[in-house]
Amino acid sequence: MIIFLKFLHYKKMFMLNKKRIISASQAILEATDQFMKKDSNLVLMGEGINDPKGIFGTTSNLSKKYSKNRVIESPISENGITGIAIGLAINNFKVLLIHQRVEFALLSIEQIFNNAAKSFYVTNGIHKVPLVIRMVIGRGWGQGPAHSQSLETVFSYVPGLKVLIPSSAYDAKGMLVSALRDPNPVLILEHRWFHYVTGNVPKKIYQSDITKPKIISKGKDITVVTSSYNVYEIIFCSEILKKFNINLEIIDLRVLRPLNTKPIIQSVKKTRKLIIFETGNKIYGIGAEIIASILEKYHDVFDFPPSRIGLPDSPTPSTRGLAKVYYPNSIDIMKAIIKQLNVNVEVKKKIISLLISKLPSHEIDVPNPNFKGPF
Amino acid sequence: MNFLNNNLAKSLLRLRMVENEISKRYSYQEMRCPVHLSIGQEAAAVGVCNNLKIKDQVYSTHRCHSHYLAKGGNLQSMISEIYGKKSGCCGGRGGSMHLMDISVGMMLSLPIVASVIPIAVGAAMSKKINKSKNVVVVFFGDAAVEEGVFHESANFASLHNLPILFVCENNRYSCFTDVSERQPSEDLTRLARSHNIESIKMNGNDVIKVFNQSKKIIKKIKKYSKPFFLQLDTYRYVEHCGPDNDDHLNYRNKNEVKKMAK
Amino acid sequence: MKLKKWLNDDPIENFLKYLKKKKQYDKKKIEVIKNEIAVEIKKSFDFAINDNFPEVSSLQKNVYAQ
Question: By Cβ atoms counted within 10 A, which residue in A58, A61, B59, B140 is the most buried?
Answer without folding.
Answer: B59
